[in-house]
Amino acid sequence: MKKLQGKRMRATFLLLLLVLAIVMGGCSADRSAAGTALAENQLLTVKMLDVGQGDAMLIRTPEQTILIDTGDVDERDKFLACLRKEGVKTIDKLIITHPHADHIGGAAVVFKEFTVKEVYDNGQATSTNLYRTYLKTIRDKKIAYKHLSAGDELDFGGGMVFKVFSPTKEMVQSGDDLNGNSIVGRLVYNDFSMLFTGDSTADAEKNMLKTFGSALQSTVFKSPHHGSKSSSSTAYLKAVAPEAVFISLGAGNEYGHPHTVTLNKYEKQHCKVYRTDLDGTIALQSDGKKYTITKEK
């Protein structure tokens, strides 16, 4: 009788272990599924829009939509079509790296067609009608407006931060080099980073190297000034050490961008190069660790 009871107890114990294993296994699967869903909801998306010989970068985080530059005046229709295709309704932050027409040219369309919550630029004024209209629209619409300089940070939401490296306030006050005083900032999301550069020049790169050094290191690099030889100095590239480079430019442009000497530098650094003139809009997605890049042409 005692042996029979012992066998029953052992059987009951084994049955309980089996049930417990099934329950725990189910809980683990649920946690895994929840983790996957969370990662999918925390994606960073960056698109270099194909707007010809100009710059327009659309950034989307789980909480915000950010636009860096707006292309040229003569590409407004193409630029607007890109934004509509992306389903943009509201732009939380509009960042103008510098007031040249191929970066500020589509701002009027943005203000007219979308709700813009905040505008940022480097504070460098110009006398063009394009720039004056840009400022007037900001005032008339009562949009929050702020100047950015080295050391500033913007919260893009979802744990994503934009850290400004250039220009300094002194650079803007002491000179009228619109390209050289472009806003340069590093978007950081956990292990992933991307450096946005406007049309910054070799002189600005030298200043940033001196101040920030290895902090410039970024996974992906937006080529300054459409791949011009005036930028992407060798020392700067070594500090940034990017795995991939994005170049925004128009096919057959009159400036000969991207310059061969610059492409050779990227090749020497073993960077994978993506170009809007060849690849169309370039799309990047990252979960903060890994990233993917796709061509939309």
Characterise this structure.
With 297 residues, this protein is α/β, with parallel strands linked by helices. It has one domain (40-295): Metallo-beta-lactamase, Chain A. The protein is built from 10 helices and 15 strands. It has helices at 2-41, 76-85, 101-104, 107-113, 129-140, 169-174, 202-212, 234-240, 260-268, 276-279, and strands at 44-48, 57-60, 65-68, 90-95, 115-121, 144-147, 153-157, 160-166, 184-189, 192-196, 220-222, 244-247, 272-275, 282-286, 291-295. The strands form 2 sheets. An 8-stranded mixed sheet has the order 6-5-4-3-2-1-14-15, with helices on one face. Strands 7-8-9-10-11-12-13 form a 7-stranded mixed sheet. Helix 5 links the parallel strand 5 and strand 6 (144-147). It is globular.
In short:
By secondary structure, the chain is α/β, with parallel strands linked by helices. Helices cover 37% and strands 25% of the residues.
Topology:
Blueprint: H1 2-41, E1 44-48, E2 57-60, E3 65-68, H2 76-85, E4 90-95, H3 101-104, H4 107-113, E5 115-121, H5 129-140, E6 144-147, E7 153-157, E8 160-166, H6 169-174, E9 184-189, E10 192-196, H7 202-212, E11 220-222, H8 234-240, E12 244-247, H9 260-268, E13 272-275, H10 276-279, E14 282-286, E15 291-295
Parallel strand pairs: 3-4, 4-5, 5-6, 10-11, 11-12, 12-13
Antiparallel strand pairs: 1-2, 1-14, 2-3, 7-8, 8-9, 9-10, 14-15
